[in-house]
């Protein structure tokens, strides 16, 4: 092979190599920005994990002693633990945005407690929500929430070491639009926690799921009988 042919071959190989490098960079960029290679598990900062149409902030009542439970602690909420669903997560406080939509946690790992709901240990309904999955992460904090069963324990820990136990007695999936929001996030006659996450089908255009999984649990004390499963969500104080 003469020098001229050798030079042509070298130039061709360099060109091919350059094109392959450029193609790899473009492909990685498209995957990273979720243009291609995405799947149904693509929640992000735009994804709503709770509900809209939250019109009025309704904090829980002041804790009072009772024959069943002592007065609650107002210490900050620090963790939510559900052993059967492999959940042990830090808590962040969230509220409702200007459109009346429950603000979502900012990442795959935190669980939001909503300041319009009751503080655990107080009377009423303490509402929590978390992502089921998250972009570039996959399974998120509430991925296994679907696996909880009646009688499973949910633990809420406070900054002062206080811990409250709740037993699951309700689990149901609702349409995101048209769900009984007041019954889900509104006040309850008993001390309860309500956990919410996404379900159903993910719409990659809107970045939203079309359903919500709702789990409710009622406060219990060690050794006491577990609350029976319920078919519908009660409301009212």
What does this structure look like?
A hairpin with a 4-residue loop joins β9 and β10. The chain has 237 residues and is of the alpha+beta class. About 7% of the residues have low confidence. The chain has 2 domains: 37 residues; 144 residues, Sortase, Chain: A, CATH 2.40.260.10. 15% of the residues lie in helices and 30% in strands. The N and C termini lie far apart (92 Å). Strands 1-2-3-4-9-10-8-7 form an 8-stranded mixed β-barrel. The protein is built from 2 helices and 10 strands. The radius of gyration is 24 Å and the shape is elongated.
What is the string of helix and strand elements? HEEEEEEEEHEE
* Whole-number tally of structural domains: 2
Shape: elongated
CATH architecture of the largest domain: Beta Barrel
User: What is the overall number of helices?
Assistant: 2
Unreliable segments (pLDDT under 50, ≥5 consecutive)?
33-40, 57-65
CATH third-tier fold name of the largest domain:
Sortase, Chain: A
Q: For the largest beta sheet, what order do the strands appear in spatially?
A: 1-2-3-4-9-10-8-7
CATH class of the largest domain: Mainly Beta
Give the integer mean of the pLDDT values.
82
- The counted number of beta strands is 10
Radius of gyration: 24 Å
- Between the first and last Cα atoms, what is the distance in angstroms? 92 Å
The major sheet is characterized as: 8 strands, mixed, barrel
Helix % is 10-25%
CATH superfamily of the largest domain: Sortase
């Amino acid at each position: 092979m003469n020098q001229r042919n050798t030079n042509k071959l070298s130039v061709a190989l360099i060109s091919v190599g350059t094109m392959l490098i450029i193609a790899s960079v473009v492909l990685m960029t498209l995957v990273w920005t979720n243009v291609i290679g995405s799947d149904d598990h693509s929640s992000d900062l735009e994804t709503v994990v709770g509900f809209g149409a939250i019109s009025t902030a309704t904090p829980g009542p002041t804790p009072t002693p009772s024959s069943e439970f002592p007065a609650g602690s107002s210490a900050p909420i620090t963790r939510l633990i559900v052993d059967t669903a492999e959940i042990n997560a830090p808590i962040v406080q969230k509220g409702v945005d200007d459109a009346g939509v429950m603000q979502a946690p900012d990442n795959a790992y935190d669980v939001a407690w909503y300041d319009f709901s009751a503080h655990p240990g107080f009377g009423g309904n303490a509402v929590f929500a978390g992502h089921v999955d998250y972009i570039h992460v996959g399974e998120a904090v509430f991925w296994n929430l679907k696996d909880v069963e009646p009688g499973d324990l949910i633990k809420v820990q406070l900054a002062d070491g206080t811990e409250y136990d709740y037993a699951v007695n309700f689990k149901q999936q609702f349409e995101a639009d048209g769900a009984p929001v007041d019954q889900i996030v509104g006040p309850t006659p008993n001390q309860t926690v309500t956990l919410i996450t996404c379900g159903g089908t993910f719409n990659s255009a809107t970045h939203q799921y079309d359903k919500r999984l709702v789990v409710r649990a009622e406060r219990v004390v060690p050794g006491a009988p577990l609350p029976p499963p319920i078919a519908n969500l009660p409301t009212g104080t």
